[in-house]
Amino acid sequence: MRVLVGAVLGVAASLAFSRAAPAAETVSFGTDWKAQAEHGGYYQAIATGIYRQHGLEVTLRQGGPQVNHGQLLAAGRLDFNIAPNSFVPLNFVSENIPMVAVAAIFQKDPSVLIAHQGQGNDTLAVLKGKPIMIGSDTRIGSWVFLKSKFGYTDDQIRPYTFNLQPFFADKTIAQMAYQSSELYQAEQHGEKVKFFLFGDGGYPPYGSPIVTTDKMIADKPDVVARFVKASLEGWRDYLKNPAPGNALIKADNPKMSDEQLAYAVEKLRQGKAIDGGDAASQGIGIITAARWKQTYDFMVAAGLLDPKTEWQKAFTDRFVKDLKISF
Hints:
327 residues; alpha/beta; D-Maltodextrin-Binding Protein, domain 2; 10 strands; globular
């Protein structure tokens, strides 16, 4: 009888707890490309229950060449989005689109140019005058930086085809890439290549900032705070043990192999992309006014942004400045 009463009381307590426990807040989040290690922290937060621990049910939507998550965010069909870099929120402000960056995962843009070995020294200056395959969106971002600082010219531009076959076929050509993906593919193909990281050359924007809307911050600041904190915890855990996140990445993008993911994670660790710069002392995800002002100054000088743009509206540090999440 005592066992039966105890069981009944246990069930009653469980039912009472389930009634008292608030339902998880549903959050939709768009990435900037197909699932890869550069999204590992978010997949890790789903796989290990970190989002759940913060009262969130996160639906992650992959990006791709024909996907415009910025438009979906502006239309209210996404709650959060990964922008390619911090140029995007500044352009939002310039165009009176009410969206704002709340954290920056990569302290420097992870984009690179790759070239075949034998191209000369190890600075971006060596590729001046050489044919380079770049995408159309790059022409109004990093390409302007390369022109202004290293003297690149538009006649160097060749069409970007989203694969490495033209690069493999032409030993004189360079190509835009991510150091954690195309470099791996080149090595698997037996090609000896070198890479030039834009961030190491002085390119100022953050890479992959998390963006949301002014309305989301005004209406649900607690959800924004929980999402940012959980995402950063996911990144901290991913670089310690990426296996749970990688399993979900491969489920979303079966083309990703264990070997490529391991290579990419090691590149992220080696390059201090996430925990370097200001993040080394202020925690991962940190964004600072000084860094945004530097990006604003570059964009204005390059003719990419109206100097009257209120650049301070492009970001807020309120959700990251006191977290100090580190490895």
